[in-house]
Amino acid sequence: xxxxxxxxxxxxxxxxxxxxxxxxxxxxxxxxxxxxxxxxxxxxxxxxxxxxxxxxxxxxxxxxxxxxxxxxxxxxxxxxxxxxxxxxxxxxxxxxxxxxxxxxxxxxxxxxxxxxxxxxxxxxxxxxxxxxxxxxxxxxxxxxxxxxxxxxxxxxxxxxxxxxxxxxxxxxxxxxxxxxxxxxxxxxxxxxxxxxxxxxxxxxxxxxxxxxxxxxxxxxxxxxxxxxxxxxxxxxxx
Length: 238
Fold this sequence. Notes:
Elements: E1 4-13, E2 16-26, E3 31-35, H1 42-49, E4 57-62, E5 65-66, H2 72-78, E6 80-83, H3 95-102, H4 110-123, H5 125-129, H6 140-152, E7 158-162, H7 170-185, E8 189-193, H8 197-203, E9 206-211, E10 214-220, H9 221-226, H10 228-234
Helix pairs in contact: 3-6
Protein backbone atom coordinates (compact mmCIF):
# COMPACT_ATOMS: atom_id res chain seq x y z
CA UNK A 1 0.00 0.00 0.00
CA UNK A 2 1.24 3.50 -0.86
CA UNK A 3 2.17 5.78 2.06
CA UNK A 4 -0.03 8.62 0.77
CA UNK A 5 -2.99 8.47 -1.62
CA UNK A 6 -5.15 11.33 -2.90
CA UNK A 7 -8.35 10.16 -4.59
CA UNK A 8 -10.39 12.64 -6.64
CA UNK A 9 -9.64 15.54 -4.25
CA UNK A 10 -11.55 18.78 -4.78
CA UNK A 11 -10.56 21.81 -2.68
CA UNK A 12 -12.21 25.22 -2.66
CA UNK A 13 -11.45 28.70 -1.35
CA UNK A 14 -15.01 29.89 -0.83
CA UNK A 15 -16.52 29.51 -4.30
CA UNK A 16 -13.15 29.27 -6.06
CA UNK A 17 -12.52 25.70 -7.21
CA UNK A 18 -8.76 25.34 -6.58
CA UNK A 19 -8.17 21.58 -6.90
CA UNK A 20 -10.31 19.77 -9.45
CA UNK A 21 -10.10 16.05 -8.86
CA UNK A 22 -6.48 15.44 -7.87
CA UNK A 23 -5.26 11.84 -7.89
CA UNK A 24 -1.74 11.04 -6.73
CA UNK A 25 0.20 8.39 -4.82
CA UNK A 26 3.49 8.51 -2.96
CA UNK A 27 5.34 5.35 -1.98
CA UNK A 28 7.36 5.17 1.21
CA UNK A 29 10.96 6.33 0.66
CA UNK A 30 10.28 8.34 -2.50
CA UNK A 31 10.95 11.95 -3.38
CA UNK A 32 8.00 13.12 -5.49
CA UNK A 33 7.77 16.62 -6.93
CA UNK A 34 4.80 18.76 -7.97
CA UNK A 35 5.57 21.30 -10.66
CA UNK A 36 3.40 23.89 -12.33
CA UNK A 37 2.95 27.61 -12.91
CA UNK A 38 2.01 30.05 -10.14
CA UNK A 39 -1.63 29.53 -9.20
CA UNK A 40 -1.73 25.96 -10.52
CA UNK A 41 -2.66 24.56 -7.09
CA UNK A 42 0.69 23.26 -5.79
CA UNK A 43 0.61 25.02 -2.41
CA UNK A 44 -3.11 24.23 -2.07
CA UNK A 45 -2.30 20.53 -2.56
CA UNK A 46 0.21 20.60 0.31
CA UNK A 47 -2.17 22.56 2.57
CA UNK A 48 -4.94 20.06 1.82
CA UNK A 49 -2.69 17.12 2.74
CA UNK A 50 -1.51 18.74 5.99
CA UNK A 51 -5.07 19.64 6.99
CA UNK A 52 -4.77 23.43 6.80
CA UNK A 53 -7.58 23.31 4.22
CA UNK A 54 -10.19 20.56 4.12
CA UNK A 55 -11.24 19.06 0.78
CA UNK A 56 -14.90 19.30 -0.18
CA UNK A 57 -14.79 16.00 -2.09
CA UNK A 58 -12.45 13.03 -2.39
CA UNK A 59 -10.25 11.17 0.05
CA UNK A 60 -6.76 11.64 1.50
CA UNK A 61 -5.31 8.42 2.91
CA UNK A 62 -2.03 8.28 4.85
CA UNK A 63 -0.66 4.90 5.86
CA UNK A 64 -4.14 3.40 5.48
CA UNK A 65 -5.94 6.07 7.55
CA UNK A 66 -8.25 8.71 6.09
CA UNK A 67 -7.21 12.27 6.94
CA UNK A 68 -10.24 14.23 5.72
CA UNK A 69 -11.68 14.90 9.18
CA UNK A 70 -8.43 14.87 11.16
CA UNK A 71 -7.41 18.32 12.54
CA UNK A 72 -4.11 19.71 11.22
CA UNK A 73 -2.24 19.40 14.55
CA UNK A 74 -3.20 15.72 14.83
CA UNK A 75 -1.93 15.06 11.30
CA UNK A 76 1.52 16.04 12.63
CA UNK A 77 1.15 13.38 15.35
CA UNK A 78 0.38 10.85 12.58
CA UNK A 79 3.68 11.56 10.85
CA UNK A 80 3.26 14.41 8.33
CA UNK A 81 5.19 17.68 8.68
CA UNK A 82 4.88 20.78 6.48
CA UNK A 83 7.62 23.35 5.82
CA UNK A 84 5.50 26.14 4.31
CA UNK A 85 6.19 28.57 1.51
CA UNK A 86 7.82 31.74 2.84
CA UNK A 87 9.45 29.89 5.80
CA UNK A 88 7.03 31.28 8.43
CA UNK A 89 9.59 31.17 11.24
CA UNK A 90 8.77 32.95 14.52
CA UNK A 91 11.02 36.03 14.23
CA UNK A 92 11.06 37.04 17.91
CA UNK A 93 12.00 33.53 19.10
CA UNK A 94 15.50 32.05 18.95
CA UNK A 95 16.53 29.30 16.53
CA UNK A 96 16.37 26.79 19.37
CA UNK A 97 12.91 27.96 20.50
CA UNK A 98 11.60 27.65 16.91
CA UNK A 99 12.92 24.09 16.78
CA UNK A 100 11.32 23.18 20.11
CA UNK A 101 7.95 24.38 18.80
CA UNK A 102 8.33 21.83 16.00
CA UNK A 103 8.58 19.10 18.64
CA UNK A 104 5.33 19.93 20.45
CA UNK A 105 3.81 16.55 19.63
CA UNK A 106 6.59 14.81 21.57
CA UNK A 107 5.35 16.27 24.86
CA UNK A 108 7.95 16.03 27.64
CA UNK A 109 10.07 13.36 25.97
CA UNK A 110 13.26 15.36 26.44
CA UNK A 111 15.58 12.59 25.34
CA UNK A 112 13.88 12.25 21.93
CA UNK A 113 13.57 16.03 21.54
CA UNK A 114 17.29 16.47 22.24
CA UNK A 115 18.17 13.67 19.80
CA UNK A 116 15.98 15.25 17.10
CA UNK A 117 17.56 18.65 17.71
CA UNK A 118 21.07 17.22 17.35
CA UNK A 119 19.99 15.51 14.14
CA UNK A 120 18.79 18.89 12.77
CA UNK A 121 22.06 20.55 13.85
CA UNK A 122 24.02 17.79 12.07
CA UNK A 123 22.06 18.49 8.88
CA UNK A 124 22.35 22.28 9.30
CA UNK A 125 25.53 23.17 11.24
CA UNK A 126 24.77 26.87 10.65
CA UNK A 127 21.71 26.53 12.90
CA UNK A 128 23.85 25.06 15.69
CA UNK A 129 26.13 28.10 15.48
CA UNK A 130 23.12 30.42 15.70
CA UNK A 131 21.00 28.47 18.18
CA UNK A 132 20.60 31.46 20.53
CA UNK A 133 20.06 34.00 17.75
CA UNK A 134 16.61 35.46 17.03
CA UNK A 135 15.12 33.83 13.92
CA UNK A 136 14.15 37.24 12.50
CA UNK A 137 17.84 38.21 12.28
CA UNK A 138 18.81 35.18 10.16
CA UNK A 139 19.47 35.37 6.43
CA UNK A 140 16.88 33.99 4.01
CA UNK A 141 18.88 30.79 3.55
CA UNK A 142 19.25 30.29 7.29
CA UNK A 143 15.52 30.85 7.80
CA UNK A 144 14.84 28.19 5.17
CA UNK A 145 17.13 25.78 7.01
CA UNK A 146 15.23 26.58 10.21
CA UNK A 147 11.83 26.01 8.58
CA UNK A 148 12.94 22.57 7.35
CA UNK A 149 14.64 21.79 10.67
CA UNK A 150 11.51 22.74 12.62
CA UNK A 151 9.42 20.41 10.42
CA UNK A 152 11.89 17.57 11.09
CA UNK A 153 11.66 17.94 14.88
CA UNK A 154 8.55 15.74 15.04
CA UNK A 155 10.37 12.93 13.18
CA UNK A 156 7.91 12.83 10.25
CA UNK A 157 7.51 9.92 7.89
CA UNK A 158 6.35 12.35 5.17
CA UNK A 159 7.83 15.83 4.78
CA UNK A 160 5.96 18.42 2.68
CA UNK A 161 8.35 21.07 1.33
CA UNK A 162 6.90 24.20 -0.31
CA UNK A 163 9.34 26.23 -2.44
CA UNK A 164 12.52 25.61 -0.40
CA UNK A 165 14.72 27.43 -2.94
CA UNK A 166 12.57 30.58 -3.24
CA UNK A 167 14.68 33.74 -3.08
CA UNK A 168 17.96 31.94 -2.39
CA UNK A 169 21.33 32.39 -4.11
CA UNK A 170 22.33 29.52 -6.45
CA UNK A 171 25.02 28.17 -4.09
CA UNK A 172 22.51 28.00 -1.23
CA UNK A 173 19.95 26.32 -3.47
CA UNK A 174 22.50 23.61 -4.24
CA UNK A 175 23.19 23.13 -0.52
CA UNK A 176 19.48 22.96 0.37
CA UNK A 177 18.85 20.36 -2.34
CA UNK A 178 21.79 18.25 -1.14
CA UNK A 179 20.31 18.35 2.37
CA UNK A 180 16.87 17.32 1.05
CA UNK A 181 18.58 14.33 -0.58
CA UNK A 182 20.25 13.45 2.73
CA UNK A 183 16.95 13.77 4.65
CA UNK A 184 15.45 11.30 2.19
CA UNK A 185 18.43 8.95 2.59
CA UNK A 186 17.71 8.97 6.34
CA UNK A 187 14.29 7.46 5.62
CA UNK A 188 11.93 10.44 5.22
CA UNK A 189 9.52 10.40 2.27
CA UNK A 190 9.30 13.83 0.60
CA UNK A 191 6.68 15.67 -1.44
CA UNK A 192 8.40 18.70 -2.95
CA UNK A 193 6.78 21.78 -4.48
CA UNK A 194 9.45 23.77 -6.27
CA UNK A 195 9.61 26.68 -8.73
CA UNK A 196 12.98 25.43 -10.03
CA UNK A 197 11.44 22.65 -12.11
CA UNK A 198 14.73 21.41 -13.56
CA UNK A 199 16.36 21.01 -10.14
CA UNK A 200 13.21 19.39 -8.72
CA UNK A 201 12.97 16.87 -11.57
CA UNK A 202 16.65 15.97 -11.18
CA UNK A 203 16.18 15.38 -7.45
CA UNK A 204 12.86 13.48 -7.46
CA UNK A 205 12.10 9.95 -8.63
CA UNK A 206 8.62 10.84 -9.87
CA UNK A 207 6.71 14.00 -10.72
CA UNK A 208 3.23 15.38 -11.26
CA UNK A 209 2.50 18.43 -13.40
CA UNK A 210 -0.38 20.63 -12.23
CA UNK A 211 -2.26 23.10 -14.43
CA UNK A 212 -5.17 25.14 -13.02
CA UNK A 213 -5.99 22.59 -10.34
CA UNK A 214 -5.68 19.48 -12.50
CA UNK A 215 -2.86 16.97 -12.97
CA UNK A 216 -2.07 16.98 -16.66
CA UNK A 217 1.09 14.85 -16.68
CA UNK A 218 2.80 12.40 -14.37
CA UNK A 219 5.57 9.86 -14.52
CA UNK A 220 9.23 9.20 -13.76
CA UNK A 221 11.13 12.48 -13.45
CA UNK A 222 13.77 11.54 -16.01
CA UNK A 223 11.01 11.02 -18.58
CA UNK A 224 9.32 14.35 -17.80
CA UNK A 225 12.70 16.10 -18.13
CA UNK A 226 12.66 14.97 -21.77
CA UNK A 227 8.97 15.69 -22.40
CA UNK A 228 8.57 18.44 -24.97
CA UNK A 229 5.57 20.04 -23.19
CA UNK A 230 7.46 20.19 -19.89
CA UNK A 231 10.60 21.56 -21.54
CA UNK A 232 8.66 24.34 -23.23
CA UNK A 233 6.40 25.28 -20.31
CA UNK A 234 8.66 24.84 -17.28
CA UNK A 235 12.28 24.49 -18.34
CA UNK A 236 12.48 27.58 -20.55
CA UNK A 237 13.32 25.65 -23.72
CA UNK A 238 11.86 26.09 -27.16
